[in-house]
Design a protein that fits this description.
312 residues, single chain, globular, 2 domains, mainly alpha
Amino acid sequence: MSDVTLSSASDAVIRQDLSEVRDWVTLLKPRVISLVVLTGLVGMLVAPGHLPPALGIATVICIALGAGAAGAINMWYDRDIDARMKRTATRPIPAGRIEPGAALAYGVALAAASIIILGLATNWVAAGVLAVSIGFYVFVYTMWLKRRTSQNIVIGGAAGAFPPVIGWAAVTGSVTPEPLLLFAIIFFWTPPHFWALSLFAHADYERVGVPMLPVTHGARETRRQVLLYTLLLVPLTLAPTLLGFAGWIYAAAALLLGAGFLRHALAVWRDRQDAAGRSLTGDAPARKAFRYSLSYLGLLFIALAADRMLLG
């Protein structure tokens, strides 16, 4: 066998191995984890007190692994509908690249490891909040609410709001009103963020019978709810400054970012529609609002951390 043939075979094996690694990483929903890690890290940074760097890194890793574990279990449970949705059909389980049982074991093992390690590294209050967040996402949102009610993302959205509480508890060993305020901000951000997505993915949800708001109440009502929740969210983001938890740097950022979010929400609400509430201009307003909402939350929390570090 020639050196060229051996080299080609070796490259093929490496590509296959990398592909398998990517699939296992995909199960963790890495794009979701990025926001989870950011908000959890900010919860740690703004908490009174500090953790040694090694424990801080361990906390961030545990938060990421816990969120990823919940995502893997979600993909295991939703593999039947994922296979029938264009947006999710290529995921590792419905595409047949990872066995469902292996994915479930992977998610459960990571969940248990993240909780135990966080408890041993920091404290069991933080570990308990992490356990609640994983359980809420898996049992309350994925298994109970998602396929039963159009309010699935409103109630289930609480699962994604726990990371700053976990970060705060890791530093302080307690849960006080300040991290609960950060929880509330993410909680009210989730509906306009996710309903913007559901406006341009409603055909997928309708096909598999998931009762997202555009499927059960129509696109017009969904656009109205996007605007209403944004109107509730923007004043809420000013509460940290009004309550003395943050300073003018954060307040200025919250106002500017909130104005941008309101502009996108208004564009979604004003989108030209037919009699059934379907957009006459395509999905552009909803897609732009969805993309902006991702940047919005990240920048808002970065501003909070910057405010605390610069102004104390």
